[in-house]
Specification:
CATH topology of the largest domain: TIM Barrel
Number of helices: 18
CATH class of the largest domain: Alpha Beta
CATH superfamily of the largest domain: Glycosidases
Helix content: 25-40%
Number of domains: 3
Structural class: alpha/beta
């Protein structure tokens, strides 16, 4: 595998709206991020992905972009963005932005022009079709946010347009070369400004299976999941390689794709040495237990399921490239609330379990990608009613649960487990008002547990979740262990041992053994050889005798073995 400048880094996602507000309007901003660059440097972060700060009406929290060349005034100015790029570079931190090009906002000038003249140039920038009310739609696909993917074109009762996401997010027509040229020009404009690269949003959706047709309905609404169409779509890599040739490859830019629906044979074409992306997120754990019914039917993930998913992802990319290893992001609930057994966070082993989850994921081969608040073990929040929920997908899932016969309380239980609001509550800096996030009223309610879980309380505690993540990052940066930690292969150890996730990271000269006891009971694990030293331990003691490692509940250790 060709070695790249980003391989040894630790990445960190910032959701700007919820990171730090410096002007008291309740919304995080670029000046808040600039003021915390020293914090990110102290943590050990080398690459930062910013969720969208482009001009947007925020129908989907910035993933509906009305102007790709402008910073939304809520977040600051382009001068602020330029300062952020300069100051981050001075601290050896690369800045990556979201690239959202499957769709734009219905307030983008292209769509407004399309509404004025559906048959003109900009009408061809989108999927617009003639349609009379009462006629069948061109297809029965269900939007990711619920309902049909077709809506009436504003100002017209005889045209409709396609939106795989929110109705305010019309899909761009990638079949039109003029659309692609506009997108490539915008990408290069940002790379010329000094941006290190992009996280590429929902990118598989740019290629539709055409002509439009129906698929078997999978819910009572008579609609079909978009996934059925994506399974049949062919040719997305032609678009992606053209984009890479015209943009990313010219700059040696870092790119990470949000790819849920790749076909197995396509993986090397996405992230191999000649792949269209540098890397892509590992969603093997994220999709566990998901089904077509909805959130209400989704079961809790077990430690055995989590282990199997991680090892399968490592197996399939062993000879291909790097994945980005994640536990959570802005679209998912908090990882410690999702992957740890119910009640664990609040129990006697809560801190140890949070560290263990971080450790077993971080030490896998690939680029570790933390999400803001993960490093202090932030947890899901709780809403008493759907009126308190901001997330549009959660509101749709609440309706799905009610339609399935659940009570409002039962529907809210599933919303509280999976709502995207869980990850979007403001960062918990300290125990002061609003967790130190804002002097005003936060746009989204702060998690009430901020008085117990906050950065200020953990910084001075050597046993905190935060200091454990710092130690993980320091180990990854340590030249003495770089070959094993960054490039070493992942080999499962005793995978049949229930609720124990153990694996080797091996280089030519080193063997590291990573062990996590994912349960409330102690366990004895045979050691595969002589231990040279304990590199990291989430508890204070590490008991080894007679060739056996005795691990306490939720204990995590990294051992250097004799080669």
């Amino acid at each position: 595998m060709e070695r790249k400048w980003w391989h040894g880094l630790t990445a960190y996602q910032i959701y700007p709206k919820s990171f730090l507000d410096t002007n008291g309007d309740g919304i995080g901003d670029l000046r808040g991020i600039i003021s915390k660059l020293d914090y990110l440097q102290e943590l050990g972060v080398g690459l930062v992905w910013l969720s969208p700060v482009y001009a947007s009406p925020l129908a989907d929290q910035g993933y509906d972009i009305s102007d790709y060349y402008r910073i939304d005034p809520r977040f600051g100015t382009m001068d602020d963005m330029d300062e952020l790029l300069r100051e981050a570079k001075r601290r050896d931190i690369a800045i990556v932005m979201d690239l959202v090009v499957n769709h734009c906002s219905d307030e983008h000038k292209w769509f407004r022009e399309a509404c004025r003249n559906p048959e003109g140039k900009y009408g061809r920038f989108f999927y617009i079709r003639k349609h009379q009310r009462g006629e069948p739609m061109p297809c029965n696909w269900r939007s990711y946010f619920g309902g049909s993917v077709w809506s009436e074109l504003p100002g017209h009762d005889d045209y409709i347009y396609l939106h795989l996401f929110h109705r305010k997010q019309p899909d761009l027509n990638w079949e039109n070369p003029e659309v692609r040229r506009e997108i490539y020009s915008m990408i290069n404009w940002w790379l010329d400004k000094g941006l290190a690269g992009f996280r590429i949003d929902a990118i598989i959706n740019i290629k539709k299976a055409l002509p439009f047709r129906d698929y078997p309905a999978d819910r009572e609404d008579g609609l079909s999941s978009v996934d059925n169409m994506l399974f049949e779509a062919r040719g997305v890599l032609d678009f992606l390689n053209e984009m890479a040739d015209e943009t990313f490859r010219k700059y040696d830019a870092f790119t990470v794709g949000e790819v849920f629906n790749e076909k197995p044979e396509e993986l090397p074409l996405f992230i191999g040495d000649k792949g269209c992306f540098s890397t892509m997120f590992d969603f093997g754990e994220t999709v566990l237990n998901q089904g077509s019914e909805g959130w209400y039917a989704q079961k809790h993930v077990t430690p055995e399921q989590y282990k199997a998913a991680c090892f399968e992802s490592q197996r399939k990319t062993r000879d291909t490239g790097f994945l980005c290893n994640i536990i959570e992001n802005h679209d998912e609930p908090r990882g410690v609330s999702r992957y740890l057994p119910e009640g664990t966070c609040a129990g006697a082993y809560g801190v140890a379990a949070k560290k263990l989850l971080g450790g077993v994921n971080f030490m896998l081969r690939g680029l570790p990608f933390l999400y803001q608040g993960q490093e202090i073990g932030m947890e899901n929040t709780h809403c008493a009613s759907i009126e308190e929920v901001d997330d549009i997908s959660a509101r749709d899932q609440y309706r799905v649960a009610l339609d399935a016969g659940l009570s409002p309380d039962e529907a809210m239980e599933s919303v509280n487990r999976f709502s995207r609001d869980n990850a979007r509550t403001p960062f918990q800096w300290d125990a002061s008002a609003n967790a130190g996030f804002s002097a005003g009223t936060p746009w989204l309610r702060v998690n009430p547990n901020y008085r117990e879980i906050n950065l200020d309380a953990q910084r001075g505690d050597p046993d905190s979740v935060w200091n454990f993540y710092r130690a993980l990052i320091a180990l990854r940066k340590n030249p003495a262990f770089r070959e094993a930690v960054v490039y070493g292969q992942t080999t499962p150890y005793l995978p049949e041992l229930a609720n124990v996730m153990a694996y080797f990271r091996r280089s030519d000269a080193q063997t590291l053994l990573v062990v996590g006891n994912c349960q409330d009971t102690a366990q004895k694990i045979p050691l595969p050889g002589t231990v040279k030293q304990v590199l990291l331990n989430n508890l204070r003691e590490c008991v080894m005798e007679h060739g056996t490692l005795s691990v306490r509940p939720w204990q995590f250790v990294i051992l250097e073995m004799d080669a």
